[in-house]
Write a structure and sequence with these properties.
Helix content is 50%, strand content 15%. With 380 residues, the protein is an alpha+beta fold. It folds into three domains: 108 residues, Acyl-CoA dehydrogenase/oxidase, N-terminal domain (Butyryl-Coa Dehydrogenase, subunit A, domain 1, Orthogonal Bundle), CATH 1.10.540; 109 residues, Butyryl-CoA Dehydrogenase, subunit A, domain 2, CATH 2.40.110; 143 residues, Up-down Bundle (Butyryl-CoA Dehydrogenase, subunit A, domain 3), CATH 1.20.140.10. It has a four-stranded antiparallel beta sheet, with no helix packed on it. The longest helix is centred in the middle third of the chain and has 37 residues. The protein is globular, with a radius of gyration of 21 Å. The two termini are 39 Å apart. 45% of the residues are buried.
Length: 380
């Protein structure tokens, strides 16, 4: 169980919510997790039970059916799933896509989409990455051209989380190909539209239960009213929301790193070698001491960044630094923890093997570590 002793970001109400999240995970997630890992995605029913439990989009105001809570409730969900060593597909909706609706949608769009996102009846995705454009969003080639009262969307996207299950996709597209980044818009595309197609559920190194897909748009027509926010303002919207996405990744990474440490500590205290436990060797204790110190620093920083974000003060550079440091540190800790398991660490039956393989992508999605350093460097 993830220890929260000494944490400064949370109140008693938050900890009561955490207890409910843990009960929910034990009841609704863990019994089915291995099955979802094998099948490559979580069941659609899980979205609905999450909605019933109030674990989808908790920051949405009550006017749209939400709980109107602060982002720390999202963080609690992220920490508890992160401590399991996985990322729930629902986090994309609660931490990322819903923010675009809250900040940029029209009142009509909010009333149409938010209730379903909260209940789990509507699953969303955001399609940024393309085969030839990743962190550099200015290089996207998907277009949405005006044709009367419609946009006609053409192009393809890849590595799209929730791609197999999404009912609604926020598509990052060029509405003016002459304006580079200033010609990007966010277009809402319902996945039952003619011309929309899903590719295969991509075969990944880790995060098996989180479906990731290719998406194709062949003359997909959507009404002009499906533009999220103002036309050609999409790049600014993306930059404005990436800070929360990157903080979310940092939080999950910190929690997963803590789990890796806890698994390693338990293992070395029970494993015997040369007549004593592996823990009794000085090298083992020194490695664990180093990891413990990094975790101590990490939790203090998470609380600082989390409170700063709730206050509306977390900058893009600070969020990038958090994403960079916590995911790189996560990798260092899970790798060292696997090494302390010896050969057992390479066996899939041990939790540490999953923690290790699922950690690798943390330094890539949401912006690579190299891009994070570039963002921090530019802000100096």
């Amino acid at each position: 169980m993830l220890s929260t002793e000494g944490r400064r970001a949370y109140t008693a109400d938050h900890e009561t919510f955490r207890y409910q999240v843990r009960k929910f995970i034990d009841r609704e997630f863990l019994p089915k997790f291995d099955q979802w890992e094998r099948q490559g995605q979580i069941d659609r029913e899980f979205w609905r039970v999450c909605g019933e439990a109030g674990l989808l989009c908790p920051t949405v105001p009550e006017a749209y059916g939400g709980l109107g809570l602060d982002y720390r409730y999202n963080a609690i969900i992220g920490e508890e799933f992160g401590y399991l060593g996985t990322v729930s597909s629902t986090a994309l909706q609660s931490d990322i896509t819903v923010s675009y609706f809250l900040n940029y949608a029209t009142e009509e769009q909010k009333k149409r989409y938010l209730p379903g996102m909260i209940s789990g009846e509507l699953v969303t995705a955001i399609a940024m990455t393309e085969p030839g454009a990743g962190s550099d969003l200015q290089g996207i080639r998907t277009t949405a051209r005006r044709a009367g009262t419609d946009y006609v969307v053409n192009g393809s996207k890849t590595y799209i989380s929730n791609g197999q299950t999404a009912d609604l996709v926020i598509v990052v597209a060029k509405t003016d190909t002459q304006l580079a980044a200033r010609g990007i818009s966010l277009i809402l595309v319902e996945t039952d539209r003619p011309g929309f197609a899903r590719g295969r559920n991509l075969d990944k190194i880790g995060l098996y239960s989180a479906d990731t897909s290719e998406l194709f748009f062949d003359d997909v027509r959507v009404p002009i009213s499906n533009c999220l926010g103002h036309e050609n303002a999409g790049f600014g919207y993306l930059m404005g929301q990436l800070a929360q996405e990157r903080l979310s990744i940092a939080i999950a990474g910190q929690a997963a790193a803590q789990r890796a440490f806890d698994e390693a500590l338990t293992y070395v205290k029970g494993r015997k070698a040369f007549g004593k436990t592996v823990f009794d060797f000085q090298n083992t204790r020194f490695v664990l001491a180093d990891l413990k110190a990094k975790l101590q620093v990490g939790w203090a920083h998470i609380d600082w960044a989390l409170l700063r974000h709730v206050e509306g003060k977390l900058t893009a550079a600070e969020a990038a630094a958090a994403k960079y440091w916590h995911t790189e540190t996560q990798w260092q800790i899970v790798d060292a923890a696997l090494q302390l398991h010896g050969g057992a660490g390479y066996m899939s039956e041990f939790v540490i093997s999953r923690l290790w393989r699922d950690a690798r992508v943390q330094r890539i999605y949401g912006g690579t570590s190299e891009i994070m350093r570039e963002i921090v460097g530019r802000a100096l």
